What does this fold into?
Amino acid sequence: MAIDLIFFNDGILVFDVEHWIELRKTYRIIGEIIGNTAFVPSLPLKINPEEVLLLLDKGIVNVLRITSASSDPTVSQQKLMHFENELLQSQATEYKKSRRIQLESMLDKIVAKRRETGDTRSPEEILNEEIEKSTIVTKSNMIWPISLKPFNFSQFVSEPVNMEEVSKFSTKLKKLVYKDLWEKQYYITQGDKFGGDFLVYLGDPICHHAIFIVRCVESEQKISPSEIVAFGRLGTSVRKKAVLASLLDDKVSYVTINWIDA
It folds into this structure.
């Protein structure tokens, strides 16, 4: 049975822990945990566009968009609004708990600064003000939803999201490079933090360090010698091979940059 993924706010999410385990252990899909409860990572898992496109191509998943909270149009909007408000409140509560722990560790310094400006309120009053002004969660920036339990989406009305719509968030080159690396049995994650498009691992990133930083270069894209040198140096500095990936006659071609000290 295909796994249902939920399309929300231009992201594609997994809410069921069993689905997360299956995607990681069976299909080498890593994604990115974006939930957080008192500093403990939790679902949902956000799946990158290239991962989703591969899963759709293999028939492993369905991507669904929640369109309403009920098949009855007279109550659907109210139910959806109530549902979103509950999510918003729960996230604001968790965020305030986390923020309180952070601010309590530096409360003496905060109070001292306030005393310099003539603020004579109690430390608790100052703490509460700091928490309130630094924990604003709105529907535009909340994570939808944070939950430690599997979420039942059968109560909602949904519609399928096709591959063409998902493709808007990636490129043909990135899609094909990811697929090629995946079919070579590698584990792949996003490579932004190392100046590339993908990080490539021999095994699960929990146990292995990345061996390649892959940067996708379009056929019409110009890349200067200085950029190549900088990318090669970067790879050497973090003990990974720097790799440029392009399409040659619609097939993925790789160039590895080796840095040799003369």
